C-alpha cells in the first residue's frame, strides 16, 4: 500500500502542475484577446484538480473486504464524481462567458499532466531504470 504522504505529494505535484499549466495557457489566450477561452480553461482545470483530489481521498474507502459493499461504494463514488464533473460543463453551456471546448480541455488537464510526466520520464530517463518509469525497470 502506498503511504498517505506519498499520495498527498502526488496530489500536490500533479494538481499544482495542472493549475499552473492552465493558468499559463490561459494568460496566453487572454493576451490574444480570447477571454472566454481563458475562463473555460481555468474553470475546467480547477474542477479537474478537485476531482483528482476527491478521487484520491475516497479511494481507500472503496477498498473493503466485502465485494458487494466495495462495488456499491465504488459505483456511488463514480456517480458522484461524474455529477461533480458535469458542473463546469453546465456552467459553460449556460453562460457565454465560458468557452465549452476550452472547459472540456481544462477538465483533462490533470490527466494530460500525468501523461506528460510519465512520457517525459520514459523518454529522458529510459536507460537509467528510474523507479516509476514506464519501461518496466525498477531497481
UniProtKB/TrEMBL annotation:
Record keyword Nucleotide-binding present: no
Protein name as it appears in the record: ATP synthase subunit I
Annotated Pfam families: ATP-synt_I
Coiled-coil segments: none
Main location (coarse class): membrane
Native organism: Desulfosarcina ovata subsp. ovata
Subcellular location: Cell membrane
Alphabetic keyword roster: Cell membrane, Membrane, Transmembrane, Transmembrane helix
Transmembrane regions listed in the UniProt entry: 14-34, 41-60, 72-93, 100-120
GO cellular component: a single term: plasma membrane
Source superkingdom: Bacteria
